Amino acid sequence: VKEEVELALKKHLANMKRNSEKEVHFPESRSLQLQFLNNLSLPVFTGARIEGDDSTIKVALVDTLTGQIVTSGPESSAKVEIVVLEGDFDGDESDNWTIEEFKNNIVREREGKKPLLTGDAFLTLKEGIGSVGEISFTDNSSWTRSRRFRLGARVVDNTDETRVREAKTDSFIVRDHRGELYKKHHPPVLFDEVWRLEKIGKDGAFHKRLSRESINTVKDFLTLLVLDPSRLRHILGTGMSTKMWEVTVEHARTCVLDKRVYLYCPPGTQQKSGVVFNVVGQVMGLLSECQYVPIDKLSETQKAYFPYHIRSFVSCLLFSYIIFLLCL
Question: Any idea which UniProt keywords this protein has (predicted)?
């Protein structure tokens, strides 16, 4: 009987402890915030769709205490608005801000202009994640105090008392669409027009100088850079500083060359020996009795063989006496 009493007493005390813990247990508070899941694809131009760096822009609702996306509850299907913010809107040192501070940094269109954002600026979260629709800017960012914009995201029609902190992207510049027509290519490709290179403006002085010498593409530029760099430098003239020249040449050299090669065979070799060049005239190696030797494997004596044949090769280019091979 004593043992039964002690067992019953233990159960009673355990139940009291559990009930006591329930009474003093407070529900965990949540700290909710919208977040952009990916960065914007730059550069951004007026009239062009604003996209993420890998896909469409995605927004998520996150519990900042756990770092997890909120996939259930009324907030997980909230309606979200995308707005334009001042580029210098940072919040305080802990990247915090009030609702009013966020509202005060929303950028509106200039007087007499169309709404700054056009397209579908609203989205609905599904299990805490939503994709931004097709939106674009109608105006550039040059007239704002920082000359930059940010995108912001905020919950609309929030009937719950829980504060959902807004999201913002990094700041970025929005340029007029006409600038896209003149932008440089990184990296350039062989048949890009030569003004796609850095420091050579479309229809500018350097572009005109090059055009007069029939240097119209990046391939033309690279070919002369390999075969006669001093002539190329002379064509561009003293208006192009040494620093500008270095920037242009460095950019041109980032061009990805294709696998085409040329073989120049001196007269009398029956195409068994010759010099192998790439598509821009750079020496790749030597063909000796039908055996290809890369340039880094050649002796100094063999390398001394090149200058004469390079000149012969250029002459043959002029008169179209080149044997063209694919992927030697």
Answer: Activator, DNA-binding, Nucleus, Transcription, Transcription regulation
